[in-house]
Structures are given as C-alpha cells and as structure tokens.
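Lab notebook page, bench 4
Experiment: in silico fold of construct C2
Operator: M.H.
Input chain length: 244 residues
Purpose: comparison with the prior construct
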Amino acid sequence: MPLLSADPAAFPAEPPENLDDPTGIAEHDWAAFSELEEMTDHWSRPGWSDGARAYYWMLTFPDSPELTDLAVTCQEELTALGLNPVPVDGLHITLARIGTRDAVTPRQLEALARAAARELPGAFTLRIVPLAGSRGAVRLSVGPWAPLVHLHAALLHAGRSEDLLPRNPTALFRPHLSIAYNNRRRPAAPVTAAVAHLRSLAAVSVEVADVQLVELRRDGATYRWDVLESLPLAALDLAGPAVE
C-alpha cells in the first residue's frame, strides 16, 4: 500500500500512525482540529467559482439512513454557527479529481471507467466515527483508512494509464466526510467547542460496494453531481480479510 506522507497543505498535515484503527484515526483528526486557531472560507477557492464543473471519483451514500440521521443531528446542533450544511442527498467522500470538462473528453472518461473497473479492490465497511473538522469544514472522521487508500491508489493508476494525471498523489490523501462547510474567516474556538459536545454520538457503519465517477458542480454554497458511472467493487467478505 502506498505510504501516506506529511504535507502542510493536507489536513491533518501528518497522517495517522495506524490506517486500520478507526478509533486512533478519529483521535488524530480531533487533535488536529482542536489545535486550529482560525477557520477559512471553504468557498474561497481559485478556479472553483459558482457553477464550476469537473469530473471526480467519489463515494456517495444514497441508501444510508443511519448516516443521514447522524449528519442531520449534527447539523441541527450546529445551526447557530451559520455554516452551510451538506444536503442529506449530498453526503459524500471525495476520492480523486479527474479533470475539468474542457480538459477531459467523453472518450477519455469511457476509457477511464473501463481501466478503473479492472483495477478496483474489494468492497469494505467504513465506520463513521466522531465529529471533527478541518480549516474549512466540519466533518465526520471515517475509518479504517487502509481500504480507502487502496481504492484511491487503484483509481489513480487507472487514470495514469489513460494519461489523466492526478492533481494530488495518494500519499496526500486524507479521507473524510464533510457535513457542513465554513463560509467565512473566523476564530476556530467557537466551532471546535460546539463540535466537542457532539463527539459522544454513536458511530454508524456503511458498506462501500461501489465507486462513482461523477460530474461535480458547485451550486451556490453546496455541491451537486450527476453520476456518469457507478462501478462495483468485489463482493464484501463478511468474514473480514485474512491477517497477514
């Protein structure tokens, strides 16, 4: 598996020590978030103005009522902060950016989907663990990271085979699931304090059985997408992977 690398532009800058330990991952995420002094405007992103579109690999969760309930509970408790909540049908984990519509042709997308289908690893279960955040969002930690890192690496390998070079390597991947975006510069302390009260909520689990190739667009202060391909992962092994 590719090793994750430290990078000051990533969040957290340092990856967790154990990619197979959801509890340790959650603690690592919280430690980084709780040390923030200031939060930034998530929407102040060069090249990603309202209406911008690009192709991405994502995981979406249209049939996960427990995840939806958890996200809504957190969003309602954080209403006073004035964040932009992620719509319940917009919950996702971003895996990798493919490119913009003017840079990637339909033929390339079709070839990419075929190449990715040959590379995909097996299905897996994710534990959605306590709330934390980043510089520009409040987000749920997810774990384990190991299968997500495998999946990310496979998708990037497929992209390289079609001359679609990734913006960021797998080494800088930091999986997470945002529930609300911060929309202005502000001191981080009020946000981290509010999030701290929600960290005792019970975790939920979701099965990841496919990956989506989407056309993502910014629609005001939210993200929307159209699914172009949904590729199945190998069957989930309910007995769990063998220990090596």
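Observations: Residues 237-244 have pLDDT under 50 and may be disordered. The chain has five helices and eleven strands.
Next step: discuss at group meeting.
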